[in-house]
Predict the structure.
Amino acid sequence: MKPVIVSGLKPSGELHIGNYLGMLKQAVELQNSNKYRCFYFIADYHALTQRYNPKEKAEEIYKMAVDAFSAGIDPKKSVIFVQSHVSEHANLAWIFNTITPVGKLQGMIEYKEKLSEGQIPNAGLLDYPVLMAADILLYKAEFVPVGEDQRQHVELTREVVRTFNDRFGKTFKEPKAVHTKAPRIMSLDNPTKKMSKSMPAGCLYLSDSPEVIREKVKRAVTDSLTGIDYDPEKRPAVSNLVLVYSEFSGVPIPEVVKKFHGVGYAKFKEELAEVITKTLKPFQEKRKKLLKDKRLVMSTLEAGTKKAKPIAQKTMKEVAKKVGLI
Ligand code: AQP
């Protein structure tokens, strides 16, 4: 049996280049390698932990699926579905809740960051990593392609595995987080914050038009020093842009720095906008077509649910028996 890969996309807004470079691009590569059984889901339950407009949520969920397909997630090669359509995600999270210390969840970096950004600390937000552990372990995943922000959550999943196996007998294996070379793309307007859907001012969206991309890149903060360089400690803003250039062009970072030696910010930013626009073109064309075919998208997701559900049910049955339910 091929090892299992699981990852999710939270429909809390449109996908940005951080989501793409930190996770989605790799998710597609792993799928295409043919070495894994890949499960990718739209994490709608996770999205409900943030303040949202219920009238917009269904559209966001649908668009997130469109974006995943447009970026190359292929239903012939991967199982793709909506999290809430497989109720076992919530059921398993409940069991894991009973073995997870609250103090551990209160100490999670992402949780504390969301609070510092002014979010109301609802129980779902606190519980996010436990639901994520269930997302991963329902399918007994070995690898989880995620951005750096999710590393601590995968670590918690590993702790859940150890606790569960200790108390109820060996059931799960500890999964590993796998990161790309761009695990943390920073916000365009603040290089100390990661690019986040919930902070749109610093985001470059995969659906942005060439004009918007040019404008956003032009406005991206740099620093008072001159020259294009890569030194995330001393020059985080410029280094972030160099990393984005490298990832979109496929040119290694040292060569990017060499290529733009002595070149001003304006020229570098023009070329950066161009390489992003060019790379995103096929994605945007596919997206435009798929957005018009809601029936196809919904039926593909339904087919994904049919594949995911029996596997989730099997794990849940095993867990229920182990923890003493009848
Ligand atoms: N800035 C980032 N750089 C690299 N990777 C990132 N990811 C998120 N932001 C960056 C990774 O993208 C995948 C999908 O993310 P998500 O949809 O699950 O939501 P998130 O991690 O909470 O991302 P956001 O954009 O910051 O959403 P909000 O603002 O709504 O919380 C994940 O693998 C994530 O690590």
Summary: The pocket of adenosine-5'-tetraphosphate is lined by residues 8-10, 12-13, 18-19, 22-23, 43, 50, 146-147, 149-150, 183-185, 194-198 (CB under 6 Å).
